[in-house]
Amino acid sequence: MRNLALGGGLLLLLAESRSEGRSMFAGVPTMRESSPKQYMQLGGRVLLVLMFMTLLHFDANFLSILQNLVGTALIILVAIGFKTKLAALTLVVWLFVINVYFNAFWTIPAYRPMHDFLKYDFFQTTSVIGGLLLVVARGPGGVSMDEKKKEW
Question: How distant, in Å, are the alpha carbons of 12, 15, 54, 83, 128 from that of 19?
């Protein structure tokens, strides 16, 4: 799941690097069509939220249930593109705190194998945070509820 989430961040980056086709008539409105860039942004958002599937824990304590409910609600909001920037920013903060707490590789001596595992997870999670920050900065894209609300 984490590797797929990392691929989602790369897909978002690739979508941002694609240039949109220019209209031959400047200033003349055109019919809105879905471009490959918009579908790449959708795919990137959906893959990016897979990171949070690895954080779900099915314990019977209150904190675990609350974390699962809030996390699931936020990942659904990002995936469908509703209030995307706010939900992605909340996930960035939440994931950063969890990453620093659970993947603190600097507290383990370098000669222990767990140091390498935690370091790998830390930087992989940091890459997913970067993908979420890209969603915060550029928005959800054309295939999202936020974009459909503008048409209503």
Answer: 13, 9, 34, 25, 23
